[in-house]
Each structure stands twice: as structure tokens, then as C-alpha cells.
Amino acid sequence: MGSATSSALPAYLPTNGLVVWYPFNGNANDESGNGYNSTVYGATLGPDRNGTSNSSYNFDFSNYSNGSRDDMIWVPHDPAFSTPTISVSVWFKPTAWSYSGNPGS
């Protein structure tokens, strides 16, 4: 598994074992230094939780259908992602929410 060594990483970001980092600063490129760039389909750039322009993605799902590549960020598979443990951190803000399952199951 790769480990980030880029001097451009912010000091608050833990780099021990870091494989990818997508800060969404105008694109969906990996800035860990490992080169795992992603491809955006249908999502559009918008402000992040702090109001910084072009620092998050909006998924409106207006043209979404099961199996389509609309409203998604696709990360190509790499053996570095085949690990028994993974940690993911993400911020999201739903503008609408619905649930149609059984919360007890």
C-alpha cells in the first residue's frame, strides 16, 4: 500500500498509510502523491461546507438510472485498495431525504 509523501499536503492531514486524498479543489484528482485520480460523471462543482467555491460536488441524480454513470465519482480499481481495513471520511449535506426501508432490519 502506498504512503503519501507530497510536501503540498496540509499539516492536519495524517499521512501514515494515506493512499488517496480528494480535497475537491476544482477537480477530483488524488493529491496524496499516489496518482489515483478519479473521473466525475454528472456531478457539478459547488461550494463546500465553509462556502469555498468549487470545493465540493453536487449530485442531483436528475438523469440517474441503475447502472448508469451519471452523478458519480469513479475511482479506478487498484490493488492498493484491496485491504482488510479501510477508513473513509466524508462530509455530505442532503437537500432532500427519503427512506423506504424498515429501520429495525
Can you walk through the features of this model?
The chain contains no helices and four strands. It has strands at residues 39-41, 44-46, 56-58, 72-74. With 105 residues, it is largely without helices or strands. The model has no long low-confidence stretch (mean pLDDT 82).
Give the secondary structure arrangement, pairings included:
Elements: E1 39-41, E2 44-46, E3 56-58, E4 72-74
Antiparallel strand pairs: 1-4, 2-3
Tell me the span between the first and last alpha carbons.
Answer: 36 Å
The number of helical runs is 0
Would you tell me the structural class of the helices and strands? little secondary structure
Biggest sheet: strand arrangement: 1-4
Rg result: 16 Å
Number of β-strand runs: 4
Helix amount, in percent? under 10%
Give the SSE string: EEEE
**Average pLDDT over all residues:** 82
* Main β sheet profile: 2 strands, antiparallel
Give the CA-based shape.
globular
Instruction: Name the poorly predicted regions.
Output: none
The proportion of residues in beta strands is 5-15%
Can I get a quick summary?
The chain has no helices and 4 strands.
